[in-house]
Design goal:
This protein is mainly β and about 170 residues long. The chain is about 10% helix and about 40% strand. The strands form three sheets. A five-stranded antiparallel beta sheet has the order 5-8-2-1-12, with no helix packed on it. The chain is globular, with a radius of gyration of 19 Å.
Amino acid sequence: MLNVRLPIVASVCLLAGQLAHANVEVTFVESAPKDRFILHNTSQCALNDLTVHLDLSNSVGRLIFDTTATGAGVEVFQPFEVKKGNLKLISASEVKDGDSTLSLSIENIAANDSVSFTIDVDDTLTQSELGNIRVSGSEISNALIKITTKGQQTSAAMFDNKGKALVSLPSC
């Protein structure tokens, strides 16, 4: 009887492992003077060799990155800075003031762990909920986050009105 159960249990465990989905929850946190983007791996498997593309151009608040004292941003500015994890900017050597996109390379995110970076984000609306130097969750709505895995599969999600986006990646 025991010999019959072992293959069944092993098959069920193998099948469950194959069906594990990898999700990344991306959160925008408005904070003065630095805004924060957190990418949290909510899956039970490590994610390796990811490329992340963040595009604010279709956001409700017409958001931009404010990285220098002069240019398109308003008052307070902050350049791109890694806060946690093995990630680096790959779209350019730096994010330029007024840019609305950036791309990152993430070496790895352990299961149920996160990586993060800070940068200043401003809206460009003539009338905005919190003024141009602070961004509400609703102003980041419709911004796009795309993640490409090392297998070259790309998944995307749009931010909601609470500053969150859930990217469903292929099974791990």
